[in-house]
UniProtKB/TrEMBL annotation:
GO molecular function, one term: oxidoreductase activity
Protein name: Alpha-ketoacid dehydrogenase subunit beta
Organism (species): Deinococcus antarcticus
Superkingdom classification of source: Bacteria
Residue ranges of the region described as Disordered: 1-20
Database matches in SMART domains: Transket_pyr
SUPFAM superfamilies to which the protein is assigned, alphabetical: Thiamin diphosphate-binding fold (THDP-binding), TK C-terminal domain-like
Keyword Oxidoreductase: yes
InterPro entries hit by this protein: THDP-binding, Transketo_C/PFOR_II, Transketolase-like_Pyr-bd, Transketolase_C
Names of the cofactor(s): thiamine diphosphate
Enzyme's top EC category: oxidoreductase
Length: 343
């Protein structure tokens, strides 16, 4: 299995035997949006350049021609307006999908997410909801520097009232996005841009969803639990391959859902292996994986044979040309695993 392939149990259609085909992660995103728009007339799509151009990464290519300019349309360069409009549309019965061109740009819309989308159900006593999806390319690996490569998902994991997702495979990208569009709650959907065309996998031809809040075991093992999500997952699999060649049995877990996250599956794995290495590309301080580490030491402390380790980005603005230094690649992950195994 290569780093960009999905384990068979995750990529095959449920039940086995159904027709599947191999597509990229960005094709999975496009298909999910198109199918949901086809099935539900309430779904609308808008953002900067998503219409005629099809988005910066072409994730929405062809959708305006297919569904028309009233359902797929471009917006001004104003993230606050994009998110605010999505909240209003959702409160009035639509199912908006708002694209933010890069995750780094969400800042101007932050208050709309925090104060409106995440809280409208609670503030209104259930009279209003905000079933919207905010899609955005996230993470590094494309030498985009500190305005096009950041991983800000931890900010949103702190907001009660929303869901935060980041897939790493085409199967999950399509299934999770469809589940997000159908959700009754607002969803932040981070798409790891370096995997848009690098990640390929089998996706069913029939309609399906992936349950929000469930992690995926990409590889089973007994000696160490290697846990990550999003763009780092190919590196986790490469690290597991390297350690496997030395006789180390590594269990690889893809959280894929950050809020809510699958505590049960993580704890089951750590209780089995006794060791955990947590990986993400966001800066180390206040990284969401710190919450995962806390829960592990709180609820599985007696099973640990070594301290929980974390491999992350550095506490600096994202560098323009030093992606390979900043990102937690397979070498850094293997080093952390070896240190944990030798504790």
């Amino acid at each position: 299995m290569t780093a960009t392939q999905e384990p068979r149990q995750q990529g095959a259609a449920p039940g086995g035997g159904e027709e599947t085909r191999t597509i990229t992660l960005i094709q999975a995103v496009t298909e999910a949006i198109a199918e949901e728009m086809e099935q539900d007339s309430r779904v609308v799509l808008f953002g900067e350049d998503v219409g005629a151009r099809g988005g910066v990464f072409m994730a929405t290519a062809g959708l305006q021609e297919r569904f028309g300019k009233t359902r797929v349309f471009d917006t001004p360069l104003s993230e606050a307006s994009i998110v605010g409009a999505a909240v209003g549309m959702a409160a009035r019965g639509l199912r908006p999908i708002a694209e933010i061109q890069f995750a780094d740009y969400i800042g101007p819309g932050f208050d709309q997410i925090l104060s409106q989308a995440a809280k409208i159900r609670y503030r209104s006593g259930g009279q209003f909801t905000a079933p919207l999806v905010i899609r955005t390319p996230s993470g590094g690996g494309v030498r985009g520097g500190h305005h096009h490569s950041q991983s800000p998902e931890s900010y949103y994991a702190h907001m009660a009232g929303i869901k935060v997702l980041m897939p790493s495979t085409p199967y999950d990208a399509k299934g999770l996005l469809k589940a997000a569009i159908r959700s009754e709650d607002p969803v932040m959907f981070f798409e790891p841009k370096r995997l848009y065309r690098a990640a390929k996998g089998e996706v069913p031809s029939h309609d399906y969803t992936v349950k929000i809040g469930e992690a995926a075991v990409r590889r089973e093992g007994n000696d160490l639990s290697l846990i990550g999500y999003g763009g780092v997952m190919p590196d986790l699999l490469k690290a597991a391959d390297a350690l496997g060649a030395e006789g180390v049995s590594v269990e690889v877990i893809d959280l894929r859902s950050i809020l809510p996250w699958d505590r049960d599956r993580v704890l089951q794995s750590v209780e089995k292996t006794g060791r955990a290495v947590l990986v993400s590309e966001a800066p180390r301080t206040a990284n969401f994986m710190g919450e995962v580490a806390y829960v592990i030491q709180e609820q599985a402390f007696d099973f640990l044979t070594a301290p929980v380790a974390q491999v992350a980005g550095f506490d600096i603005p994202y560098p323009y040309v030093q992606d390979r230094v900043y990102l937690p690649g397979a070498n850094r992950i293997v080093a952390a695993c070896v240190k944990t195994l030798n504790y």
